[in-house]
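User: quick one, fold this
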Amino acid sequence: MLTVRDHIDIAASVEKAFAYMDAPAHQTDITPSLTRSSLVERLQNGGSRAAYTYRVVGLSLSGEVRATDYVPNERIIWTMSGALQGTIRWYFAQSNTSHTRFTYAATYALPGPAVLHPVLTPLVRRYNERELARLLRNLKAELENRPSNV
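Assistant:
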């Protein structure tokens, strides 16, 4: 299993950050390699089931995410199925009266033959760390530049 984790402080309320991230359609705006994220259904726990497609080195990887732990304005825990399998964890914390600390952590299994994993793991980790840093910068820019009523 491979884990990447990082956080960013955003000049936006927890409510605004959570509402933005809770809409699957916004994910393609901030996630560099994500080409599709669409709502499949709203779940009884309030979270979503969404379909995704990542495009990585010319390959399309598709599947679904399901919010298995959903606490408004605090966290969403996603279970990934399909081409990528694992867990994505989003945490929202008020860092002061008008700022949110958003933490993104993902743990997933590397696809492909296990014999290649020792070679691929460091490369995939670096790639995902760069992608996560871009996602966080994009989220910060989006929320800090987005009108407060949107």
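User: anything notable?
Assistant: The CA atoms of residues 43 and 87 lie 17 Å apart.
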